[in-house]
C-alpha cells in the first residue's frame, strides 16, 4: 500500500502529461492528492483532471487559475514543471532577441505568472508548497549547447530563492528541484539529434555530451520516477522545515558544491 501522506491535498502539475511531469502527477495521486495537470494539448490516456493551457500566454494562465478556483477552490501544491530547451546551440551568435525571449517566457516567466496568480489563496490560509523544476544547467551552462536555456534556469533558481525568503513567514514553502539528464523523450531526441549532427552513434553522442559535464558518476541517466520521488518528499509533511533550497538530482554529475 502506498503512503497516503497527501490525502486531501490539491496539486497542480504543469507540463504534467508526459516525462517528469507525468511521473510527478502519478506519484502525488498515488499518495492521495487530487491532481490537476496542464499542458498545451490533451493526450488520449490522461487519468488526472486536465486543463489545456499555454503558460507562456498571460490570458491562458488566468483562465487556468479561474478554472482551478471554480472547480477545486484553490490548490495546496504547485509544481512548476513546464519548460524545456527550445533554442539552438552554437553560442551567442545564434541567439536572436526573439529566441532569448522565447526561452525566458517558457522557463521563467510562465512560473512567475502562475505563482503570482495562485499565491494569494495559499497566503490567505497560511499553507502551501511551490516546487520549481529547474535543471543542473542553471549551475553549469554549456555555451555550445544550451546557453539561453541555462540562463533561464539560473534566473529561475534565483527567483525561487527570493520568493522562498519572502513567503517563509507566510506559511508557504518554495523549493527547487534541479535534475540532471533524465530518460525522457525530449532528452532521447536531444541526444539523437546531437549524435546525428556530430556524425556518431547515439551511444557515442551520449558519451560526448556527458564528457562536457564531467560525466555521471552513477553511470546512467535518472528515471522520471526518481525525480517524482524527490518531489513527493519535498511536498510532504516530512519536509515542513525545508524551504529555499535547490535539490540537484543528477547522479553526482554536477562538479560543484551545492
UniProtKB/TrEMBL annotation:
PROSITE patterns: ADH_SHORT. Transmembrane segments: none annotated. InterPro entries: NAD(P)-bd_dom_sf, Sc_DH/Rdtase_CS, SDR, SDR_fam. Signal peptide: none annotated. Gene3D superfamilies: NAD(P)-binding Rossmann-like Domain (3.40.50.720). GO terms for biological process: monocarboxylic acid metabolic process. NCBIfam families: PRK06523.1. Belongs to the short-chain dehydrogenases/reductases (SDR) family. This is SDR family oxidoreductase. It comes from Mucilaginibacter achroorhodeus.
Amino acid at each position: 500500500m502506498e503512503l497516503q501522506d497527501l490525502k486531501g491535498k490539491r496539486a497542480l502539475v504543469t507540463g504534467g502529461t508526459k516525462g517528469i511531469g507525468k511521473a510527478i502527477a502519478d506519484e502525488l495521486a498515488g499518495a492521495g492528492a487530487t491532481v490537476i495537470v496542464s499542458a498545451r494539448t490533451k493526450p488520449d490516456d490522461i487519468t488526472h483532471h486536465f486543463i489545456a493551457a499555454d503558460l507562456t500566454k498571460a490570458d491562458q494562465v488566468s483562465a487556468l487559475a479561474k478554472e482551478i478556483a471554480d472547480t477545486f477552490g484553490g490548490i495546496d501544491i504547485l509544481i512548476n514543471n513546464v519548460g524545456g530547451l527550445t533554442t539552438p546551440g552554437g553560442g551567442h551568435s545564434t541567439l536572436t532577441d526573439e529566441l532569448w525571449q522565447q526561452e525566458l517566457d517558457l522557463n521563467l516567466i510562465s512560473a512567475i505568472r502562475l505563482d503570482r496568480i495562485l499565491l494569494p489563496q495559499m497566503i490567505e490560509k497560511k499553507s502551501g508548497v511551490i516546487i520549481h523544476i529547474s535543471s543542473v544547467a542553471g549551475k553549469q551552462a554549456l555555451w555550445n549547447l544550451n546557453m539561453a536555456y541555462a540562463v533561464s534556469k539560473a534566473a529561475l533558481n534565483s527567483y525561487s530563492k527570493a520568493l522562498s525568503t519572502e513567503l517563509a513567514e507566510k506559511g508557504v514553502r518554495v523549493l527547487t528541484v534541479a535534475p540532471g539528464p533524465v530518460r525522457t523523450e525530449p532528452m532521447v531526441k536531444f541526444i539523437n539529434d546531437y549524435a546525428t549532427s556530430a556524425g556518431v552513434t547515439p551511444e557515442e553522442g551520449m558519451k560526448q555530451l556527458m564528457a562536457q559535464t564531467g560525466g555521471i558518476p552513477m553511470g546512467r541517466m535518472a528515471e522520471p520516477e526518481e525525480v517524482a520521488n524527490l518531489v513527493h518528499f519535498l511536498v510532504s509533511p516530512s519536509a515542513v522545515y525545508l524551504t529555499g533550497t535547490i535539490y540537484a538530482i543528477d547522479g553526482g554529475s554536477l562538479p560543484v558544491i551545492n
